[in-house]
Amino acid sequence: MVRPTAIILLLGLLFTSFEADAAEVHSDHEANDNEGQWITLDRGVEFQPNELEASSNPSLRLAQHRFLSSANKSPFAAQDEYYPAYAQAWRMLGFFVDCEDSAEEGSRDHRELNGDKTATCQRYLMWASYVDLNYVGGGIGEYKFWDAETSSWDATTCEQHGGDRCAKMDCHDPSTSTWTLLGIYKEAFYASEWFEQLFKHAGYCNWSNDVYEFMKDRYDDWPEGCEDTDATDENGNSLYLDLKPSAGGNLTLALYTDDICKTEYMGNYVTVEDAAGDEFVTGSNLELFNDAMEYYKYCNPCRAANRKTSDENERGGKVRALGQGYDDDQEDPNDGYWKCSDAAGYTNVNQCMKFRTHTTFRVASMFDLQTATMQGGIVEVAVGQHSYGAAWNPKQADATEESSSVMQAAAVISRAVPNTGRILIITGSIFLVCGFAALVAAIRWVRQRRQRFLQVHLTEPLM
What we know:
alpha+beta
């Protein structure tokens, strides 16, 4: 039997560990260039391997080598490399609640949103960025995009102004072979900063006129912190309002019985609509808001682009049409195609850069991903060999493509085989197609049941 003291001694020989505030850790790294590589395990926990002497126990050296080899296999692309803006993409994952992080002393989120409170349950928006390491300089014309309305890949951009490569803009697919994860981030100021940056740049170019006007007028209505309402429960106790993550990466509002919005009010004496008032996103407006945000759970290029025709997108005299060049002398790999002149006066702005420079841009930890997964508030995201969040509709796209391929294969076979065996082949193909369709239907039914389970169980009160 291994004694605890022996385990402690072994760990001491393998590496030196400590727990500290993340900001202090990174500042220490920058201050001492002679230190070895620090490896992050979790929030505020990092270690630096000690070099074992050549005369040390060979078993210990072998154990250290195996441990460090596995720890150094990062699921992220290199952070010290330059990547062209058109080679980068992003997507929104959803929302989660953290009742620990925002109570940290000195936290900007805690300080600005909650004043002198000693604890709170901070709501965060979570998003991810990606890079295409095989990008060859073709701009938007190097990619085809998923069309949720037709459930098919739209290669119009490749056909209009593309080269030999037409890769899928599919970073939303956990099994993508095109995109490599760059980072996952969280944003406490999702309404006043993150939504604002998205809506006036990429949102202006991607949404229809009506949707853009609606989203622009409503994003400030979301609370950014636990807000006291004038409503009370059946016992006269005060009720509070805050954002509540829900399945599919959506967001909604909920009432809570405490001033840090941790324990959800489960009574029916008063509704969210009654307590929130008309100024908040409730009722049918909530559904419209989430429907519009669905677009950004798919893979989107960091460089904002308008893939619609000009007659679909004219606001305030600003026309975003095909074939118009940049307003300045910047090199444009799109040759003026898919030009996006946004509400802020920029042309084809780098949306990821706007997130980085105009929001808090905090890196999400594995703890954050685990928390968001348990709460059911984010869509699926792959980090190396592990997946977090809940399965999402785009995964059905592969099933649709496979079903279409099976049908085409059956047709080809039926034309190629002589008449004497054609009937048998056609009959077998029909059974094969029917069986595959039944399998796809069963998978969709299971996913729908799982989504309902998530809505009922994983978005229950935090306490």
